[in-house]
Amino acid sequence: MSKILVVDDDPHIRELVGTLLRNSGFDVIEAPDGRGALSKMEDSPALAVVDIMMPNMDGCELMRNLRKYYENLPILLLTAKADLSSKVKGFELGADDYLTKPFEGDELILRVKALLRRYKIETPQSAAAGKLVIDKGSYSVSVDGVSEDIPMKEFELLFKLAGSPGRTFSRDSLIEDVWGYDFGGNERTLDVHIGRLRERFPPEKYGFRITTVRGLGYRLETVL
User: Fold this and answer.
1) Which domain holds residue 83?
2) d(CA 128, CA 165)
3) Closest C-alpha among 186, 187, 178 to residue 67
4) Which CATH number do you get for residue 177?
5) 44-93 tens-digit pLDDT
6) Considering 84, 104, 122, which residue would you say is the last residue of a domain?
7) What DSSP letter does each residue of 90-116 carry, written as one string?
8) Is 125 helix (H, G, I), strand (E, B) or coil?
9) Do residues 128 and 220 lie in contact, with contact meaning Cβ atoms separated by under 8 Å?
10) Sign of the alpha-carbon dihedral angle for 79, 84, 89, 90
11) Do 209 and 132 fall into the same domain?
12) What does pTM read for this prediction?
C-alpha cells in the first residue's frame, strides 16, 4: 500500500485529501508546511501532494529540497493559484502535475494513480555505459558481474550521463542535478569529477568515453 504525503497548512484540505486517499486504499502522511514535510520523508512516501502558499517553508522551497534529495519522488501540486505563470514556475521547480482548488475528488485520485504508474515505468534503476553496468539500487558499478563502489557524486554524475548516452548535458544542469540548485562551489568541481571518472574508466577498457562539448557541457559516448 503506497504512502502519500499531503502537505497543506489548511487542516480542512488535509482532512479532505487524506480521506479521499484513504478511501482509495492509500496510507496518508500529513504535514502543515514544508519543514514538517521534510521531517516526514523518513517514512518513505511514494508521492507528495503539495500546496504552494504555506508558512515557515512554502511549496516552492519544499520542491527545491525534494528535487535535491529525493529526485525520484512524484510531486502533485494542489493549489488555488490557477494562473499560467504559477503553473510554469511549479513545473520548473520540479512538479510533475498540477491540480487547482477547488477540485473533484475523482480527478485527484486519477492523477495520483497516473503519476505512480508513470514513475514506476519511467524511473530507471540501472544504466549501461559500454561494458559498465551502473546500479542505482545498490549504488555500485560492475563489469562482468564484478562490482565496485565509487564516490557518491561520481556515481550520480556517471548515472546521469549514462542514462542518456549521446545527449549533451549543460554544465549548469549537471551541477544542479548532482550538487543541487544552491551549490556554493564553482564549475571547477564538476570538471574535477569528470576528470576522476575519465581516469577511473579509460575508454579502451570500459567501452565508453565522456566527451567535452566546448561551450556547452559533457556527453557520454559508446566506443565501438
Assistant:
1) 3-122
2) 9
3) 178
4) 1.10.10.10
5) 888 999 998 899 999 999 999 898 888 788 999 988 876 777 778 878 88
6) 122
7) HHHTT-SEEEESS--HHHHHHHHHHHH
8) coil
9) no
10) positive
11) yes
12) 0.55
